[in-house]
Amino acid sequence: MNMWQKAIEDAVQKTKVNMERFGDLFPHVSDNDVYLLNPNDDWTDGFWSGILWLCYEYSGDQAFREAARKTVASFKQRLEKNVALDHHDIGFLYSLSSKAQWIIEKDEAAKALTLQAADVLLKRWRPKGQYIQAWGPEGDEHNGGRIIIDCLMNLPLLYWAYEQTGDAKYKEIAVTHANLSRRYLVRGDDSSFHTFYFDQENGEPLHGGTHQGYRDGSTWTRGQAWGIYGFALSYRYTKDPLYLETSKRLARYFFERLPEDNVVYWDFNVPVDADTKRDSSASAIASAGALELLDHLPQDDADRKFLEDGIQRSMNGLVDKYATIGKPDAQGFIEHGSYHVRGGNAPDDYMIWGDYYYLEALLRLEKGLKGYWYE
Questions:
Q1: Taking CA atoms, which of 8, 211, 347, 363 is between 20 and 30 Å from 332?
Q2: Mean per-residue pLDDT for 40-57?
Q3: Residues within the annotated binding site for substrate?
């Protein structure tokens, strides 16, 4: 059994135990190594569903399938009751739950639910500014003109809806937002802003900023990772070479800055000392995203070897030094993720999205399973 297989088997076993621990609740981040649970009312709840579907595809164990299907039923109720859906993370919620079920089982009810979710995401579209608003109600004084780099991972829900329906509005909005993100969130040195603000009335660009990074002009490592993966997915759906180029630029910036143990700190510009927090989830996302990027590069591409080495270094670092292999009671797959360091919110804990992308990257490497961002 190679190291990837060992890590996958460990994650699958932990998921089986977690199914009993969590019951009908959803894990978010941990506190003292115990996952905090919620009744499907947070932006992160799709990642648990995605982990269950990945475990089912890998193992064929019907227990994972039944647990995953139960989460989809919960997401159906969440949409019907409109529980905590007033944000842009609808793609994270429904791509990894109901869309995953459609991809695996071709369940028509799951497809219909996912299309309804895409319509919920469209409600975040602001025609005056030509962007998808990240947070808050329309007209919100602070967030009304804000986009964030995370949203690139929600756009695949709209691309998919276009493919399923032929309705051009889904793709047009996704492309418009991706282009705006490329222009204003990606800097000339290939780093990235976490957020950018626009005038709500006329769409004029105002300034870059951050919410979870070290400072407005720094590069939040998880944001850089979202950009790697998100632009690679926009390329998959549109074949616009500018998206491929942007994903490569962001990936090179990320992997050129790996620290000695190959797992990144929470921000590329934060002063580093013995107490500086890591973000293992950023390394997991970047690895999965770079694996997606490699799917689109020819074998003789000048950046291919560098990207392959970066992925290997990152994943080796996670498996060797951050994974909970050999800790059967651990609830998370990888330690030392960070949610919001400056805000004091889970600065050094398990992150359910870190666990998801870690497992997705492992399954890409070992089995060619690629998650649920596209069919």
A1: 211
A2: 98
A3: 89, 150, 208, 210, 222, 226
Q: For 3-367, CATH number?
A: 1.50.10.10
DSSP 258-281: --TTS--BSBTTSPP-TT--B-HH
* 295 closest CA partner among 312, 307, 283, 281: 307
Binding residues, as ranges, are 89, 150, 208, 210, 222, 226
pLDDT, tens only, 136-164? 999 999 999 999 999 999 999 999 999 99
**Is 150 assigned a catalytic role?**
yes
> Across the strands, what pairs with 334?
323
The rounded distance, in Å, linking the Cα atoms of 114 and 124 is: 16
- Per-residue pLDDT tens digits for 188-220: 999 999 999 999 999 999 999 999 999 999 999
Residue of 45, 150, 349, 355 marked active site: 150
Catalytic-residue membership of 119? no
Selected catalytic residue, list 10, 42, 89, 355: 89
